[in-house]
Design a protein that fits this description.
Layout: E1 3-5, E2 11-14, E3 21-24, E4 28-34, H1 37-43, E5 48-54, E6 58-62, E7 66-71, E8 74-78, E9 85-90, E10 95-99, E11 115-117
Parallel strand pairs: 4-11
Antiparallel strand pairs: 1-4, 2-3, 3-6, 4-5, 5-10, 7-8, 8-9, 9-10
Length: about 140
């Protein structure tokens, strides 16, 4: 794995309902948007933003997520209450992948995606999102 950013600060995050919380610190690497069919299938989203840290630099601070073996060689964790996907870890890897949107501050530059993985699996309409009208809130609230 090639590091893309060194960040000494601790990042906090968790699920939507607050039942599961975590801390991650240290070097951030592999910040990406993944278009693979597994990410789409397990989240119901067209793509998922992830970043990685060494697994020894990740700890749960509240609750215990459920685990789902989504591939023969890896597990995803998610909140059993609200369903938020939190992590992915491949067997034998020293790193853990964390969903960027589960961070308390997902807009931080250190975790901004540096590339897109599994681009060959991307939904074709994803390329045109930047030209769609941007509505500040929901359609009925403008």
């Amino acid at each position: 794995m090639t590091p893309t950013q060194t960040t000494p600060e601790t990042r906090t995050g968790g699920c939507h309902c607050g039942a599961v919380r975590y801390e991650a610190w240290g070097k951030v690497f592999n910040a990406t948007v993944c278009h693979c069919t597994l990410c789409r299938g397990t989240t119901g989203a067209p793509a998922v933003a992830w970043f990685s840290v060494e697994a020894t630099h990740f700890r749960l601070t509240r609750g215990q997520p459920q685990s789902y073996r989504s591939t023969p060689r890896g597990n995803r964790t998610f909140c059993a209450v609200c369903g938020t996907q939190l992590t992915f870890r491949e067997d034998g890897e020293t790193a853990i992948d964390i969903t960027t949107a589960s961070l308390d501050e997902p807009a931080a530059a250190a975790v901004a995606p540096r590339d897109q993985t599994y681009a060959r699996s991307a939904l074709p309409w994803m390329d045109g999102l930047h030209v769609l009208p941007r509505i500040a809130a929901s359609r009925d609230k403008g």
